[in-house]
Amino acid sequence: MRTEDGAAPVATQGTERSSRITGLGSAARDERAPHSSSDGELHPIDAELLSHLERRFAELSGEDQRISVMELRHALKIRSEELARRVLVAFDRDADGHIDVDDFLGSVRRLLLGSTRDRLARTS
After folding, report:
1. Which residues of the chain have pLDDT under 70?
2. Which residues have C-beta within 8 Å of that of residue 98, sequence separation ≥ 6?
3. Distances in Å between the alpha carbon of 79 and those of 15, 74, 88, 111?
4. Where are the beta strands (DSSP E) in 21-101?
């Protein structure tokens, strides 16, 4: 079952709801990640992982629901601000200087379901 926007539903806390994760482009059809099906559905383990990551993101991101470089350094215990900035850039899909839930989960989905090219790309 898929949502209106083509995203695979993700079960959380005993209820099924649509994830805010967007689908991938046509390049994702070329090479699938090991835990995805040919139609882009998530493997149950991946769906559970995404659900867990979405909850953890909400806990770490605070009231503004965005993660800054400093919050990222603290959450991941990164000593180097430069390394934290590089990690942030890898997940900051809209290049606004913060990671919001859509940036984060879209990047994780790309890593799980994307082709090799998708997984190496910085932005969609």
Report:
1. 1-40, 122-124
2. 66, 67, 68, 88, 92
3. 39, 9, 14, 25
4. 66-67, 99-100
For the stretch 20-55, pLDDT in tens is 443 433 333 334 444 445 556 777 888 888 889 999
pTM above 0.85, yes or no: no
Distance from C-alpha of 11 to C-alpha of 43, rounded to nearest angstrom: 12
Measured in Å, how far apart are the chain's first and last C-alpha atoms?
Answer: 24
The stretches of 21-115 forming alpha helices (DSSP H) are 44-61, 69-76, 81-91, 101-113
Looking at residue 40, its pLDDT comes to 61
Reported residue count of the chain is: 124
On whether the CB atoms of residues 50 and 12 are closer than 8 A, the answer is: no
Instruction: Give the integer Cα–Cα distance in Å for 113 and 108.
Output: 9
